[in-house]
Amino acid sequence: MSLISLEQYSEKQNRAINRVLDTLDRLDARTSAHYSEKRAHERKNFRGLVWLSIPDGTQEFDQAMTKVWSRSISQSGLSFIYPMRIYETQIRVGVPVGADQVTWFRAEIVRQKEVEEEHFWEYGVRFLGKVIA
Questions:
Q1: Cα–Cα distance for residue pair 62/72, rounded to 1 Å
Q2: Residue 33 maps to which CATH number?
Q3: Lower Cβ count inside 10 Å, N or C end of the chain?
Q4: Position 1 confidence tier, pLDDT thresholds 50, 70, 90
Q5: Is residue 1 part of a domain?
Q6: Which of 111, 119, 1, 97 is nearest to 51 (CA)?
Q7: Is 83 exposed, middle or buried (0-12, 13-18, 19+ CB in 10 A)?
Q8: Considering the domain boundaries, does residue 26 fall inside one?
Q9: Does residue 61 form part of some domain?
Q10: Tens-place pLDDT, residues 83-102
Q11: Domain count, the chain
Q12: What's the pLDDT at 123?
């Protein structure tokens, strides 16, 4: 899969980012009481950039990387938005842990939802373990 980077987003997509994140936060607030009991770990709001790496068909993750906007994070996973559909389920996610350090996780896409009016997709991923260099 060919990834598009933040720098390649159209002006319309860049304007839509905050609207998409706000819309998803509002939807989450309505259903949080129901789902919070079912979650193993508490989710925290996390609007920031994380790295995304998807295998390029040869199972090489380092070939295709980009930054995406994250919405929330927990010990067991995170949510992010991206303006394209991702068909692979096994990905890697890099989470910033300091000014210049990123911790990479093997992850599995467990939920995807299209935000149709904004032409974005929201993804929920479960961390499967840290990537050991």
A1: 24
A2: 2.30.110
A3: C
A4: low
A5: no
A6: 97
A7: buried
A8: yes
A9: yes
A10: 999 999 999 999 998 888 99
A11: 1
A12: 97
